[in-house]
């Protein structure tokens, strides 16, 4: 396989106007990835599949990832003139990174037996603009997996042939794999409740104390 | 009902005449031909198949006739995790079974949600919607455990009375044999449990 | 062997219900759906014109639970993904975490992993053939034979790990308990006797006229569609595509062993069935090489922390050739004790992408045979 830089340059030449950013992976796995802009994603994906030197004909895995709003603290050394003398002063700045949803595709080549090449796409935000282009027309294997991401994360894949809920029932309204999803409060008791479960049990019980003997759970503390 | 004299009974038996109560004959027949519903949910279903297969051979207990249709089944073995998406179907299958019908809740998941209890789509115990006769703990229970549960159920059937005030539940006309099927809601099943049959256990103060 | 069954409707079966399609919901409670799988089928007479699979009846939130527990805490949950093959599930997960944290595995543990994975493949394929035959109406006998052999392998697993099915055996950087010589001798005996069972089993089923009639030219899959749809495992190789991750990635110590990758010609149900039978022979070859060679030494990397295990920030995708196809785990670490994202790439779920393409134009009774030959396990499909 060519280096990521070479693939990036070729893809940007082939799909005119495409912007590809290499996301470094600091871990020991050595699996960096491409961040592809949504407008040219289908063109880039088609290039990666069809170019004879790439031949990424096998899209193995499609994953949704939820990134919440984050605040990243940065410390910069800034030269400042303090009392007439130039000094280096630490300046902390906070950068707010708005949250987004991400779809990650792991590509392999069955023809040339290389891979993985990882590409990812990001939505604009987590609330309304959760649209991404569907890569199902390029790789059929994304069909069920993109439906799963739509179901569990709420990413709308434009161009998907059959975008319906897949794992949860159709009447379901939430997207349960999002990090801020609150599950229904439906386990009220277990014999050895502790930590989080005990907290939830305690919250549940005061609603019907005489019925379930809940006051005994709470007063025990 | 007057009890028959033991001596007379054994004397008659030697002549080839068997005298039993109608109830004993009826229960003897029922307990030795329990037909389970062929219905597996998850991992425990494989142990259920193993119980029916060559080594463990549930046929020794008269339970090998796994019926694909609930209309012909006496026993539902809830073998595996019951998800919320699956729960209405299970209640519907239970309702379609003819009386008398029995339920074995096999494995930790069917009892309480088991290891998957934290899951948003996992029902925390099938007894929230239908009555359960025998619970088998384990994840998954071994085939021997299922056989033990089967024997427990046979014991239970053997003790059921056909008449009198303490007759079996399924003979009482006021007892429901069908249970309400939950509906899919926007966030959860509706209702989350059958309030008429399910009562959360009470925690006793130590 | 020539084709005996037409893919189009046999004469006399084209009766129409006033030109209207009859919609049938098969499952989730169906004796041949291998669990709680459901298909909405539109039939014209007996011919399938449309088929929509419905998933989620066993969606037990594996991925979310994996994100809420520690890395090691997810290991027992992986047993319950594909509950026939807990050993290979363990291996795939351990391999991904080892990639994520950069962990080396000692040699004895690598051998153990190969031995257990191939034993798993044997019992999975044997039971699959039994199930497939009982879907075709050979109710009882083949499944009983397959389960008889499976129990012997489960005995090995049980004496090693303490559990028949849910072994929870592998650890990051190695395995949990060591084997002794008696265990290896027993394993050798079972492996030596297995070909005899295979001969008998193949005599019983693979040349059977009914089996051939029911499976040849049924559910043909083209290699192009198979690759595009992400089909993996024996199902992909039945189409003639030479792609076995044991050879391609060479994970573990597979490059040390000599084995062949069986390939099919037509990609129909019979080839898929054959693929399993041939793969079992190759697994026996691997086992025959691995069992005598196993070296002495530690079975777990002592540098791996058991408590407070925190891989560095980063992400990793690791995959193995599980009996059903490519089983992968995609993990994102933010340096905490739990993975930030824990994703399973389930082979049998993605293999179901082409179910409709395979079934269109066949009679409804063939749907069960095709589904059986895909080899699905609902714990993995819905997770």
Q: How do the helices and strands line up, and which of them pair or pack?
A:
The complex is a heterotrimer of chains A (221), B (206) and C (383).
Chain A: H1 4-14, E1 20-23, E2 33-36, H2 41-50, E3 58-67, E4 70-82, E5 85-97, E6 100-108, E7 117-122, E8 131-133, H3 142-153, E9 156-158, H4 195-204, H5 209-212, H6 214-219
Parallel strand pairs in A: 2-7, 8-9
Antiparallel strand pairs in A: 1-2, 3-6, 4-5, 6-7
Chain B: H1 6-14, H2 22-31, H3 43-52, E1 75-79, H4 87-96, E2 102-106, H5 107-112, E3 134-136, H6 143-158, E4 183-184, E5 189-190
Parallel strand pairs in B: 1-2, 2-3
Antiparallel strand pairs in B: 4-5
Helix pairs in contact in B: 2-6, 3-6
Chain C: E1 22-26, E2 38-44, E3 47-54, H1 62-68, H2 75-79, H3 86-101, H4 107-135, H5 141-161, E4 170-171, E5 174-175, H6 181-205, H7 209-215, H8 223-228, H9 234-237, H10 245-248, H11 269-293, E6 314-322, E7 325-333, E8 341-345, H12 347-351, H13 355-359, H14 364-374, H15 378-381
Antiparallel strand pairs in C: 1-2, 2-3, 4-5, 6-7, 7-8
Question: Can you put this structure into words, describing what you see?
Answer:
The complex is a heterotrimer of chains A (221), B (206) and C (383). With 221 residues, chain A is an alpha/beta fold. Helices cover 24% and strands 29% of the residues of chain A. Chain A folds into 2 domains: 4-67 and 100-175, NADH:ubiquinone oxidoreductase Nqo5 subunit (Beta Polymerase, domain 2); 184-221, no CATH class. Chain A has helices spanning 4-14, 41-50, 142-153, 195-204, 209-212, 214-219, and strands at residues 20-23, 33-36, 58-67, 70-82, 85-97, 100-108, 117-122, 131-133, 156-158. In chain A, strand 4 and strand 5 form a beta hairpin. Residues 206-221 of chain A have low confidence and may be disordered. Chain B has 206 residues and is an alpha/beta fold. Chain B has a domain at 34-161: Rossmann fold, CATH 3.40.50. Chain B has 6 helices and 5 strands. In chain B, helix 3 packs across helix 6. Helix content of chain B is 30%, strand content 8%. With 383 residues, chain C is α+β, with helices and mostly antiparallel strands. Chain C has helices at residues 62-68, 75-79, 86-101, 107-135, 141-161, 181-205, 209-215, 223-228, 234-237, 245-248, 269-293, 347-351, 355-359, 364-374, 378-381; strands spanning 22-26, 38-44, 47-54, 170-171, 174-175, 314-322, 325-333, 341-345. In chain C, the strands form 3 sheets. Chain C has a 3-stranded antiparallel sheet with strand order 1-2-3. A 3-stranded antiparallel sheet of chain C has the order 6-7-8. In chain C, strands 4-5 form a two-stranded antiparallel sheet. Residues 1-10 of chain C have low confidence and may be disordered. The interface between A and C is large, with 32 and 43 residues.
């Amino acid at each position: 396989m060519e280096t990521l830089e070479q693939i990036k340059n070729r893809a940007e030449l082939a799909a005119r106007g495409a912007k590809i950013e290499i996301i470094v992976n600091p871990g020991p796995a050595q699996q960096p990835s491409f961040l592809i802009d949504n407008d040219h994603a289908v063109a880039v994906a088609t290039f990666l599949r069809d170019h004879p030197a790439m031949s990424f004909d096998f899209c193995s895995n499609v994953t949704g990832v939820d990134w919440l709003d984050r605040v990243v603290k940065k410390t910069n050394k800034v030269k400042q003139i303090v009392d007439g003398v130039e000094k280096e002063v630490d300046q902390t700045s906070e950068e707010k990174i708005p949250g987004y949803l991400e779809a990650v595709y792991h590509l392999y080549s069955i023809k040339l037996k290389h891979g993985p090449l990882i590409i990812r796409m990001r939505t604009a935000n987590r609330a309304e603009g959760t649209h991404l282009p569907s890569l199902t027309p390029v790789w059929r294997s994304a069909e069920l997996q993109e439906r799963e991401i739509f179901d569990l994360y709420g990413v709308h894949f434009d161009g998907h042939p059959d975008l319906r809920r897949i794992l949860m029932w159709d009447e379901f309204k939430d997207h349960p794999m999002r990090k801020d999803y609150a599950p229904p409060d439906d386990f009220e008791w277990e014999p050895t409740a502790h930590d989080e479960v005990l907290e939830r049990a305690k919250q549940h019980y005061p609603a019907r104390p005489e019925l379930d003997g809940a006051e005994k759970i709470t007063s025990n503390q | 009902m007057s009890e028959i004299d033991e001596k007379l009974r054994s004397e008659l038996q030697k002549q080839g005449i068997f005298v039993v109560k109608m109830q004993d004959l009826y229960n003897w027949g029922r307990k030795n031909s329990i037909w389970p519903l062929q219905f597996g949910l998850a991992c425990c279903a494989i142990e259920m198949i193993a119980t029916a297969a060559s080594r463990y051979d549930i046929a020794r207990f008269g339970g090998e006739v796994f019926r694909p249709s609930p209309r012909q089944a006496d026993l539902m073995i809830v073998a595996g995790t019951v998800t919320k998406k699956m729960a209405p179907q299970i209640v519907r299958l239970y309702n379609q079974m003819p009386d008398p019908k029995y339920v074995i809740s096999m494995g930790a998941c069917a009892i309480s949600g088991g290891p998957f209890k934290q899951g948003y789509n996992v029902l925390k115990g099938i007894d929230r919607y239908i009555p359960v006769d025998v619970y088998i703990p384990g994840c998954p229970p071994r085939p021997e455990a299922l056989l033990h549960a089967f024997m427990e159920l046979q014991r239970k059937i053997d003790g059921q009375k056909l008449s009198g005030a303490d007759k079996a539940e399924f003979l009482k006309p006021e007892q429901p044999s069908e249970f309400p099927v939950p509906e899919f809601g926007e966030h959860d099943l509706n209702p989350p449990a059958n309030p008429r049959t399910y009562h959360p256990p009470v925690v006793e103060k130590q | 062997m020539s084709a005996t069954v037409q893919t189009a409707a046999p004469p006399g079966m084209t009766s129409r219900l006033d030109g209207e399609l009859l919609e049938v919901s098969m499952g989730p409670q169906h004796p041949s759906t291998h669990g709680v799988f459901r298909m909405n089928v539109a039939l014209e007479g007996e011919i399938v014109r449309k088929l929509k699979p419905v998933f989620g009846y066993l969606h037990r939130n594996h991925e979310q639970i994996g994100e809420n527990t520690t890395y090691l805490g997810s290991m027992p949950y992986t047993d319950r993904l594909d509950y026939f093959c807990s050993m290979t599930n363990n291996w795939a997960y351990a391999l991904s975490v080892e990639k994520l944290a950069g962990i080396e595995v000692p040699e004895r543990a690598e051998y153990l992993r190969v031995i257990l994975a191939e034993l798993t493949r044997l019992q999975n394929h044997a039971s699959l053939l039994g199930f497939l035959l009982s879907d075709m109406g050979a109710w009882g006998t083949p499944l009983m034979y397959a389960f008889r052999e499976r129990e012997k392998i489960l005995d090995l697993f049980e004496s090693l790990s303490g559990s028949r099915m849910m072994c929870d055996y592998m650890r990051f950087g190695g395995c949990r308990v060591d084997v002794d010589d008696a265990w290896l001798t027993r394993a050798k005996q079972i492996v030596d006797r297995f070909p005899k069972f295979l001969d008998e089993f193949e005599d019983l089923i693979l040349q059977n006229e009914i089996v051939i009639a029911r499976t040849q030219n049924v559910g043909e899959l083209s290699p192009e569609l198979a690759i595009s749809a992400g089909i993996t495992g024996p199902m992909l190789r039945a189409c003639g595509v030479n792609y076995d991750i044991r050879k391609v990635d060479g994970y573990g110590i597979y490059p040390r062993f000599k084995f062949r990758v069986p390939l099919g010609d037509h990609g129909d149900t019979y080839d898929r069935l054959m693929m399993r039978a041939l793969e079992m022979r190759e697994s026996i070859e691997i086992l025959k090489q691995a069992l005598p060679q196993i070296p002495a030494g530690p079975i777990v990397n002592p540098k791996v922390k058991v408590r407070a295990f925190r891989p560095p920030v980063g992400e990793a995708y690791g995959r193995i050739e599980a009996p059903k196809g490519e089983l992968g785990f995609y993990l994102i670490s933010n340096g905490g004790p739990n993975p930030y994202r824990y994703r399973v790439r389930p082979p049998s779920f993605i293999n179901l992408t082409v179910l409709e393409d395979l079934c269109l134009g066949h009679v409804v009774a063939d749907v069960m045979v095709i589904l059986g030959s895909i080899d699905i396990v609902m714990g993995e499909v819905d997770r």
